[in-house]
Amino acid sequence: MTPTPQAPKSGRGLKWTAVGILVSLLFLWLSTSRVQWGELRTVVANVHWWPWIPLAMLAYLVGHVVRGWRCKLIVGDLAPISLTAATNVVVLGYGANNILPARLGELARAGMLAQRTGLSYVQCLTVTFLERILDAMVILVLFVLAASRREVPGWMRDVADVAAVVVSGAALVVAAAVLLPSLLPRAATHLAARLQRQGRFVGKLVSAAYDVVQALAPLRKPSRAVGVLTLSVLVWTFEAGLFLAVLPAFELAASPALATLAMSLTNLGILAPSSPGFIGPFHFFCAKAVETSGVAPAIALSYAIAVHAAFFFPITIWAIGVIVAQGVQLSKAISLTRSARVARLSELQPAAGQVIAQYRVAQPSRPSDRFVTAAVEPMLPWHLVALSESERATLLAAVSEFVAGSVAALPKHLRWKARVGLWGFTLIFALTGGGRFHRQPLERRTRLVERWAFGRLSLPRQLFRMLRGTALLAFCDHPLVAGKLVRAEPGAPGKRLTVVGPA
Amino acid sequence: MTAGERSQVIVVGSGAGGATTALTLAEAGVAVTVLEEGPRVPAGDYGAESATAMQRLYRRGGMTPITGKVPLGFVEGRCVGGSTEINSGFWHRTPPEVLLRWKVQYGVDGISPAELEPHFAWAEAETRVSLWEREWPRSTKIFARGIEAMGWSGNEVPRTAHRCQGTNACARGCPTGAKQGMSRAMIPKAEAAGARVIPNCTVRMLLTRKSRVVGVLAELRHEDGVRELLRLEADHVFVCGGPTETPALLRRSGIRRHVGNQFRIHPMLKVAALFDEVIDAQDSVLPLLQVKEFWPEISLGGAFFSPGHLAMVLSDNWPSTHRYLEDHRRMAAFYVAVKGTGRGWVRPSAVGSGESMLRYDLSSEDLRHLSQGLARLSTLLLAGGAKVVIPGVTGLAAIETPEEAIRWLDELLPAKALSLTTVHAFSSCPMGQRGDRCAVDSYGRVHGYDNLFVNDASLLPDSPGVNPQGSVMAVAHRNAQHFLSRL
User: Distance from the CA of A313 to the CA of which of A19, A405, B63, B350 falls in 20 to 30 A?
Assistant: First the structure.
């Protein structure tokens, strides 16, 4: 069983909290030093709360649902999790960051994810880390886009440059772990060997490397990676929507560029250690962003306070609700174990060695069942056997399943070629006015398949040759067919298929 | 065994080499743990129809692709017992000239026929190697007719299938228990002697420290989809994962010297032949004879036959050959196998989950031998009464006369049109004392390591030119005994 993650020692935790509070106080002073309190009170009193602040909260809450969707998309192949559970996990993390110091909310989120899915804690931390990397990348891109539309002081660009360096390095590590999955475990083994360590250290290091690789495995599917990236952009679009919705509350022009600038700079700024809820850095960076449009410091700070309120309260309340409803103990947040797994372990065959990790892996992607069935059906010699409708359906399903499984079982470097070939076929067919291939009548599909399978182009011929051979093997040796493929009159000529195109 | 307990020996793989190693060591009192990547398929599930059997017993559910100038399909088993559960069981001792070549060219010690004799005898006794005891089935008689008509040397080959019932299920797992795959012949005896066999357990990496292996990192798969990463420690490790997985595992673990750089196979071209008479080859054992007239370059023999396997041969020219499917009762399948002089390699995939990448480039010599082999096999079958010979060559739908066949003695078949397969692979971790070309020493110890051994087909230095199971088991037994003498 995975070792229970340990809570940080209390001495270190207190030091870190103290640093955070000091940083918060510093930024609070920087935010308020140029502002008159009377001026501030006047601005706040004249704010048009309705409908802008609720709208802002709504945008932020929807953004969290999208975050939950993204989490589900990343984790879904490894362990089942509903959208509701994934969203609650995300909200717990953000809400806990508003209450706990030093971003301990991230650890709480990983712990809750481990509890809900049965994945290891390291895998869940990897998922959290991946989401953070994606967030940082998207924020940086949005900052660059927003800053290109506005005059921003040099120090803001410097903040973005520093963040870009850090994020790029982390993104490279993630990309390597995704694309070269054997690299990390091998590096971990060699590192452990070089350090002349043995026993549990090697096991822990290598198992952590494997956990990281397994957690990132779903991203090896291009469609999955694109989906996760798209949702990441959507997340921060909604978050920019929060900043945008508050602008009219202060009679400021609803400028998407300004809102995006404020959102991105604020989120880059709160990477610095601070108090729970990022009080201080949040207000400073948000106000500074708004001031670039010539707004007075008092208005800018009031705007920042309003945005922070919309950012802080709904999520914190939601997170408290999750904690109460699901019994998550924050004091033990980072030591959450997979209690459901413990019971299962005793049912398993006793391991012959030291168990250092447990996980699930994503199954290789398979071509669409509809397409395989539609492509395979014309290849089969139905005219040679007499079958009832139900027998035909059973046989076709069995053959399609075998063919799809064979494609999925190909080594990855060949599987993607086969998939590209199949996509190409359906795409070209659709683009040339054919529509959906699987909806075509059998006769038309037969002509199409034979044209590609026996045509002039080598690649489709090779692809269909593989599919045809596999399908015929499964068809002819199936119990429903065996014994029926016999010519009624020995010596009589056989029936011929109608072939269109070169033989 | 309790969690964390140390094994004396871990054996990776339970095929011909792994099972031989495990049994030999276990019977000598060594604490052995066998880690098998595939499942343990109950004997009652053997003999299922082709698609089901392939998904249960074969790597990749059927065929492992070998890339190269001419792509090939490699058929190997992935289950307790390995490829011995799905092969024909044909048994050959390594020809003396091959052993001599290994001694001279690779510096292999202790490899003379006399030195290997007791090991062959042991393996033949354990697997009950024997000839067919009843009247030959019709497919064999037809083949014999053709051999006699051509005046060539050919003989019945013994098999590891004592009292074979002729169910023709060799490629789907023998349901009668006659064929002595390792799951029947050796694994039960090894377990009775104290060996522990853990199926569904893939060794991901060897854990090494300086010149020693300290254990393995293995992934155990459970039926509910949960996987456990295990660390198992051992005093010695025998890697017997076969000619593709052994070098991949070694290289993945950082052991690369002469590992995976020399991958040899017996490329094989299949043909189907139509006769006037009913043969019912799908209901009998495959043809039991092999033609050795052109050995070692070319070997001719009979292949597994079923309507499905026939359809695969016909599929290369399907529009014009599909009609023969209805005549399958009057058909049988045969093959041309060549020695294989091309070059290949085995590498673990960097992108993906550590799968093995295989490459073999057919040499011009291979192509010439395949062409000549097709010519000879076709003339033999036509002389034996075949009406049509249908090769697995796209664009060459049928050979109906000796004149059509004989052209391939001088002409080369179009390489890109060939549908080639292989069931024999070896030499990816060649053994011998020559440090400039061998990955392991004469007894399978990996060069540079004290306690790491290879003991499967990958250590055969080059092509034996015959079905390799006999060579693999005899050499594995010899190596295991050598290990015991130094323990």
Answer: A19
Asked if B235 reaches chain A (Cβ–Cβ under 8 Å), the answer is no
C-alpha span between A438 and A371 (Å, rounded): 6
Q: What is the distance in angstroms between the Cα of B410 and the nearest Cα belonging to chain A?
A: 26
Spatial separation of the C-alpha atoms in residues A454 and B319, rounded to whole Å:
9
What is the CB neighbour count within 10 angstroms for residue A155?
A: 9
Residue B167 scores a pLDDT above 70: yes
Most B CBs within 10 A among A376, A485, A496, A499, hence the mutation to make, goes to A485
B147: which residues sit within 8 A by CB, 6+ positions away?
B154, B289, B291, B380, B384
Total number of residues shown for chain A: 503
Of the candidates A264, A3, A20, A321, which has an alpha carbon nearest to the alpha carbon of residue A141?
A264
Distance from CA of B4 to the nearest CA of A (A): 4
| Catalytic residue (choose from B424, B447, B477, B482) | B424
Cα(A440)–Cα(A229) distance, rounded to whole angstroms? 34
* For residues B243-258, average pLDDT: 91
Task: Report pLDDT digits (tens) over A120-176.
Answer: 777 888 888 888 888 888 998 888 888 887 777 788 778 778 878 888 888 888 888
Secondary structure letter of residue B440 according to DSSP = B
Q: How confident is the model at residue A493 (pLDDT cuts 50, 70, 90)?
A: very low
- Rounded to whole angstroms, the Cα distance separating B186 from B125 reads 11
Q: Pick the closest to residue A200 from B35, B215, B222 (CA basis).
A: B215
| Residue-level pLDDT at A360 | 58
Residues A99/A10, Cβ–Cβ less than 8 Å? no
State how far the alpha carbon of B6 is from the alpha carbons of A481, B1, B202, B215, in Å: 52, 9, 18, 9
Are the CB atoms for B334 and B302 separated by under 8 Å?
Answer: yes
CA dihedral for B434, B435, B439, B443, sign (positive or negative): positive
From chain A, pick out residues whose CB is under 8 angstroms from the CB of B3. 350-355
Looking at per-residue confidence, does B74 or A485 come out higher?
Answer: B74
Q: Chain A to chain B, count of Cβ pairs less than 8 Å apart?
A: 216
Contact present, B10 and B236 (Cβ < 8 Å): yes
Q: Tell me if A228 sits within 8 A of A134, measured CB to CB.
A: yes
Nearest residue, CB atoms, B355 vs list A359, A411, A503: A411
Which of A462, A472, A481 to probe by mutation at the B interface, max B CB count within 10 Å?
A472
Lowest mean pLDDT among A25-39, B270-284, B294-308, B348-362: B348-362
Residue B253 vs residues A137, A427, A457, B312: alpha-carbon distances, Å:
34, 42, 41, 38
Distance separating alpha carbons of residues B401 and B146, to the nearest angstrom:
14
- CB–CB contact B330 A490 (8 Å): yes
pLDDT for the residue A102: 67
Q: Which of B206, B270, B326, B390 to mutate to test the interface with A (most CBs of A within 10 A)?
A: B326
Q: What's the pLDDT tens digit per position in B224-235? A: 777 777 778 889
Residues in A touching B355 (Cβ below 8 Å)? 411-412
SS3 for A386-415 is CCCHHHHHHHHHHHHHHHHHHHHCCCHHHH
Residue of B7, B208, B252 with shortest CB distance to A193: B208
Decide if pLDDT at B274 tops 90.
yes
Residue A443 has pLDDT above 60, yes or no: yes
| Intra-chain end-to-end CA distance of chain B, in Å | 22
pTM over 0.90: no
Known active-site residue B482: no
Does B57 score more than 70 pLDDT? Answer: yes
Could you give the CA distance from residue B229 to residue B234 in angstroms, rounded to a whole number? Answer: 16
- Whether B108 has a pLDDT exceeding 70, the answer reads yes
Q: What is the dihedral of CA B413, B414, B417, B419, to 10 degrees?
A: 40
